[in-house]
Give the backbone structure.
Amino acid sequence: MAYVAIADRDVHPHDPQTFFTRYIWSQDHKVIAIQYSLTAILVGLVALVLSGMMRLQLGFPNSFSFIDPSNYLQFVTMHGMIMVIYLLTALFLGGFGNYLIPLMVGARDMVFPYLNMLSYWVYLLAVIVLMVGFFVPGGPTGAGWTLYPPQAILPGTAGAGGGIILMLVSLGIFIVAFTMGGLNYVTTVLQARCRGMTFMRMPLSVWGIFMATVLGLLAFPALLVSAIMMTLDSTLGTSFFMPALVSMGEPLDYKGGSPVLFQHLFWFFGHPEVYIVALPAFGIVSDLLSVHARKNIFGYRMMVWAILAIGGLSFVVWAHHMYVSGMDPYFGFFFATTTLIIAVPTAIKVYNWVLTLWHGDIHLRTPMLFAIGFIFTFIHGGLTGLFLGNVTVDLPLSDTYFVVAHFHMVMGVSPILVVFGAIYHWYPKITGRMLNETLGKVHFWLTFLGVYAVYLPMHYLGILGVPRRYFAMGDTNFIPESAQSLNASITVSALIVGVVQVVFIFNLVWSLFKGPKAGPNPWGATTLEWQTPDTPPSHGNWGPHLPVVYRWAYDYSVPGAKQDFIPQNQPGDPALTAGRDHGIKG
Amino acid sequence: MALAIALILLVVGSVAFHFLSPWWFTPIASNWQSMDDTVNLTFWVTGIVFVAINLFMAYAILRYRHRKGTAQRAKYEPENKKLEWWLIVVTSIGVAAMLAPGLVVWARFVDVPEDAAIVEAVGQQWHWSFRFPGKDGVLGLTAAGLVTLDNPFGMDPGDPKGQDDVLIANPELHLPLGKPVKMLLRSKDVLHNFTVTQFRVKMDLVPGMITYLWFSPTRIGAYEILCEELCGIAHFAMRGSVVVDEQSGFDTWLASQPTYAQTVARVAGDPVAGQAAYATCMACHGPRGEGNEALHAPKLAGQGSWYLARQLRHFKQGVRGAHDDDVYGKQMVAFAGLLDDVGINNVMAYLATLPDGPLPATVAGNSAAGKPLYVSTCAACHGAAGEGLWATNAPRLAQMSDWYLSTQLNNFKQGIRGSHAQDFYGAQMALMARILADDRASNDLVAYINTLGKPESQLSAYNDRP
């Protein structure tokens, strides 16, 4: 039998039979995406509550008897790990990646649907193991989300017995889940694009998710081995990360290991992880801006190259997290240079987003508000990165609230704003109904202004020298009383932002039943997911025939065209496609 | 429209906040002004970019926002190579302008002046201590495995270079003004970080290796040392102090600190002489050191000698019992003054011979409610069984006078105890005592401690420095 490319095979390999296989044990990428997203959002709400507890203590020290130094650090640790790994990574790749990749590249499903299904269930197991940590004696680990040994596995840190092992095991399970999903996403993008969908016609969302997945596949193994090694150090008494040391006056049996080795492994994963979260956000926000400004994304090719450059460079900057770790300080020269170089492709992306608005026809609907809000917070967070990436400038600011403010702005707030924008944008496709616009705007304004009121002042606490991960400042001479008032105001803002998310959750549920019917393409978008025969797309996505792509993803407001968008699968008068592919001559 | 205005207001507000904020660099006290300069430079460059891009974006939104009823159409403009390359070049120049000075300053940081004095900072959960190399200018060898109650620095007794090392077994370091110092950083247990905000530089302490940083103090004063690498539950309470002094003052201070050889040469106390001296103490603390609540005298028998000896010295030196509201502490000051160092030694030796009997509970509280806090937090230093731990400088709590624990918790909380600048470990406890929301929380905690039996092991060998 002649070979037929995957993209051209017109088969439904795994038609659902029953309610159970359709909605629970489902192999449909869209159902799996929703499972991933709901789980991630749910566990993210846990992390949000934890951050509220931390803020209560920081804003109003020692006023709440349920917060002590030990569980404060447990809140810090679990908040950080959940947000970075179990919410953002899972949501962008397992959620948006799963939903968007097959639809955007014109495939019927992921290439390995069964593996895709397993990926979710294994992820769920990882979440459950993580949550079990809250219920074991000693509770979850309080070692900080970076889990630095020796402290993570020694007395004096909460969860040094059980909690840390559960954390490491959960991470291991998560990485298995991610690998199953990740191989799928990469293979699907490489092998299952429909006819005509060349790489340089792919929407930037797919590019961002694709590159993030590649980074994840290369970076997570470093975390996996360090998790395994630390588990062995803790349980079998190996000394990978453990030098000879004294704990609470007692010499321990360890000898010759290196705590700094762990940090290298952790950040070899940890820095790409920033981009595992950021690149999908970059891609998605590019598409939101383009659709709602009714204009092609500016400098598409440069945007693609920037994604690739950032992805590549992200593997040679990790030690900028370690300027004060005690590694050879001469490394500072190299890592400061590579880190600041990465600012260039990142800046290009920002310029191109803003230039996409220029000469646009900007519809300020909720997804667009979030997209523009993202540009603002990302500019802020990106620029403060130039402080911390530059080794000398980092020295006074390292380990202070400046760092906390920076990374929350750049990889907390910014990607989350994109997540919100993306949900408002794709909800009509996912559910067939529109989200309520008024509630959406309330949600945007309070969230956007609220987070800025949280994180802008926080930088200044850092410049003052207020250290992070302190349960309480107590009486520290150089810290004025006013810093405490500022902390209280930050806490109030943070709590408001937290509570406002109820509006969002309500909107999600309410609109599912009461939202106006959306129609197949409510925003007038060009990309394939809006061209499906059914909304929500049925199993197999495309009905009897796969789409064929004739143009790039950004034919908005093409001069001479009747509508202000031309779908990718619309064949057409070359005269109306303005330079065929992406507007480049020839 | 609202969004564009909001962006403009946010930009204006951010700039205003920047210039009006009372929260800015803590005044510098070292030679690293150049670090502040690089921060300021970065603020200017990034600030200009922040304002420019956001205002441009706000303008774009204002100008190109969709207006209902108009036949507005976006411009089809996929690329503008010339503009894109210009932006790349300008960005690269801006980045280089920030990076280059940063690297120049960093080159100075990695290159320690040859005349820098060597001082070692030793970190442990959750204390600082320090070591000077002594007359030979060389620090003796140390090893983690050698750390004991008698040898908290882990000094190698066989290394002749270590004999004259000056050991500062408390978290207050003195340094001479204007002299470059290379701090060698050593950790006994986990990661820590040596930070003095006023000096700008900081570096982690990593067990198994020696790290370093250098600076020259430029301003006389006392500056807090903060641990800035998460090191466990009491991370926030791991404080120390650097006192920058004129050379002469520094020399006097250094000369008054013991060398390693001197700490080794200490003689053990004499219990017989101690018994005679204890006659005075007995009136209040009881013949068997069992304490007497009516006279506000706590139980002594079974308490760590290193702890009791330190408290006696604190009373003598006015570090404890100096606060106006510390009525019973004041009483103790007079009695502590009766003992010299040898006397303290002897009394400790005698106390160690006394039987360690159980005590009736006098504080009523809900022990179940007090347990979580004890287990999660207090136990880290005082031990799960309340046995006390010399390594964390935490006294025994179990089967000691419970009413006294309540009083002291309250004193710590109110700042009656632990607020003296020299009461380093008391200050730590003060931070902890503030966790207790009210008297009930305190009573519950003490009630839980009352459920702990007599601890099996109690290190009572007297080994604190005179």
Notes: Chain B is about 40% helix and 10% strand.
